[in-house]
Each structure stands twice: as C-alpha cells, then as structure tokens.
Amino acid sequence: MSYISFLFFGFLFIALALYYIVPLKWRKYVLLCANVVFYAYAGISQIAYLAVLIVLTYFSALLLQKIAKHRFLLLLFYLFLSAGALVYGKFINYILRAISSIAGGAPLSVSVIVPLGVSFFTLQAIGYVVDVYKHKYPAEKNFLKVALFMSYFPIIVQGPISRMETLSPQLFEGNKFDYTGVKQGLLLMLWGLFKKLVIANRAAMFADPIFGGYEAYSGFTVVFGVLMYTLQIYTDFSGCVDLCRGVSEMFGITIMDNFDHPYFSTSIKDFWRRWHISLSSWLRDYVYIPLGGNRRGKFRKYLNLMITFLVSGLWHGVGIHYLVWGFYHGACQIVGDVSRAPKDYLIKKLQIRRDVFSFRLAQQLITFVLIAYSWLLFRANGFRAALYMTRSLFTNFFSPTQFATAFGFEDLKDLFVLIIATVVLLMASLLQQKYHIRTELEKQNLYFRWGAYLIILFAIIIFGVYGTGYNASDFLYMQF
Predict the structure, then answer these.
(1) 316 classed as catalytic
(2) Which residues are within 8 A (CB) of 219 and not within 5 positions of it... i.e. 6 or more apart?
C-alpha cells in the first residue's frame, strides 16, 4: 500500500478512528491489525515471510537468554537464516546472471521472494537479537510486543530502523488522544508531501533523462543531472521519513528523525552523522564496533571502516557501482583522518581562522561537492556508466545545444518552480537550526499560521508532480 494514495489516507483515517475509539488497553491490538492489513496489501507471500521472521526472531531471542552454552553458535545460526535470506533474495539472480554471462550460456534465474521493506525490518530484527545476546536487555517474553515492533506500518517499508527499547513501549502501552499531537503529525506529513511531490518528483524530471541517456550529454549537463539527483534523493527520502514520522505522531508514537540537514555537513564523517542516521548508527553498533572499531590500531580502524562502508553499499543495492560508492565513502573518511594533522599544520601556518563563517562555508562547499559526486556513482546505471559520466566531466565539458535539448520540456516553468521550492526548503532548513518550526507556528496568530498551512497545501495540489512518466507514490529508498 503506497504512502501517497487515497487508499492509504483512507486506511489511516480508519486506523486512527478505531485506535482512539477502543479502550486504552485494546489499542495495541488495533495497531497490530492495522500493521497486518497494511502489509498484507503487498501480498500473502510477503506477509508470510515477515511472519516467519517474527517467529524466528522471538524464539531465537528467548533461547539466547535461557541457554548458557553455545550462545554464539545460536546467534550465528540466526544471522545465517535472517541475513542469509536477505542476501539470497537480493543477490542470487545477479550472481546467476554473472555466472551465465561468463560461461556464455543462456541467462539463469530463479524465482525469489523479496518482500517490501525487507532490508529495513531485517536489520531491525537483527539489532534486537544481538542486543539480547549482549545482555543489553532481556528478551521480550510477550510475542505481541515483538510482532508490533517488527511490523509497525509507518516504518516497515522505509525505516527509520528502530530499536526495541525505545519503540516497543510506545506501541504496547497505548496512547490517549492528543489534538496537538495529531495536528503536529498532520503538519509533518504535509511538509513531507511538499518535499516529495513538489521537489523530489520535479527534480527527477531533470535527473532521469540525463542518467538514462548519459552518453548523449556533455560534462556540464552531467553536472546538472547530478545536482538534480542530489536534491531528489534527499527530498525523496527525507520527505518519506517526515511522512512516516507524521503518521506515527498521530498515534502518539515518536520515532527518530533520520536526517539532520546532511548537506550542511563540514566533512564526510559529519555527513554520516546527519544522513540516514538510523542506518549509520546500526552499522556502527552492529558492524564497525564488533569488528573492533578503533581499538586495535590505525590499520585495523581503517580496515573496519572500509568493511562497514562496503556493507552499506551492498545493503543499498545490487551492482558493482554500489560497492564503489561504499568504497568511495570509506576512502574519503580514511583520507580525511590521515590528512588531519597536515591540514591542521597548514591552517596554522597560513593563519587561517577556524571560528569564522567563511571557513565553515568552505568546508560545507567542499563536502557538498564530494557528496554530490558520490551520488553520481550511486545513481549511474552501472559502473561503466559511472566511469563514462566521470570522464565527461573532463572532456567535452560544455555543449549549449545538448544542455538546451536535454530535458524534454518546452519551457523553463518547471525549473523555475523547482528553484523557488528549493529556496523554501533551504530557508526552512536554516530556520530549523534554531527553531522547532511547528512549535513556533503554534505560537502565531490564527490567520498567520493557517495562511502558512494553506500555502503549503495549495503548493502541493497545484505544483505537485503527478503525471505519467513517474509514479508519485514510489519512494526511492523503497527499492533498497
């Protein structure tokens, strides 16, 4: 069931009404039924996969708590089944195609089930079981709590990847109706729809033709396409997270924000503290630290860092270019760490002040360029396409004719709307550095705040992209 559809909004209205009508002690059951209905829409086979994983996770955690011997073997067995199913579903046909290509035979493939959101809820389940294994908290004896935690419909498809200790109590205890909370949730949903429909889908109008027909375009056009995708992927993913958080807040349940204005980052390391925070923290806690983190010397630290980012690349998708993307981010962090002392010496020698706006702006611009190039690696249709597009940045850089005919639109109205919407996003992001905008709006006069609400609503209705050529209800990160 798509998050952007009349069907979903109707489903949400019914779920909210039932949730707040029934007595408090029954609300957890309404929520579980809503989760089942939402995910069952994806198909019986997909909900069966989720049910099996829930059962496996529940009993594995209980066994890990009860037994004293061979706990590590049991954990490995659980990881083999849960993570193995994820890896098999995502990579088996890619591997078979590669083998058949090398052998020169007919393409091979098998039928596999890759459930919607499997990359998200599998990591969520693994995190819970590993935490029990580490004695961070006891295994949950109530099966319903585990089922609610793993199937919570606002986050099951696209995250954020949540932790049992923070999410489960909110799901199970039930919440009383709070008008302000429901309204705040609606406002966050509205902002998420603005980012997705007005900005992300419009940016895709410019990015998709360039990445799809990259061989026809000069380097300057490629740069434009990369910038459009850089804008698209942030507003698409963060827009969905805002939508999910807004839905959850309407039930009185708080989930983490997955973004902290990542394009304001001053380094690649800072970027990963701000981008897809739930995944970054999961990889840190369940991959990087178990590998040894930074406790075993510089070489092991850098090796562990690189392995972690390669895992991130594999998690995101199938293809060499995803591994290269992960390697690129790992390499950027390693280079940044190795060069810290020489940079500090040079800055001191040149008497460059660090505590001024210009220094921070320079850091942000350099980081933004590095991040934008990484999105070229990420979005390109394969590694060869990424290499070709990179080469075009240094050869045949500008062709006015190509640029003018690249996008397939008759005038610049769409680009103008995109620029205005992006400026609105930038202004809101700057304000969010100091203020909680929804709270501040609550303090304003009735006419002002409702004027602001209606402007955003009508902007979505009038300028949102709903036409053929894109499916406005599909979010980019759903494919991962």
Answers:
(1) yes
(2) 392, 393, 394, 395, 396, 397, 398
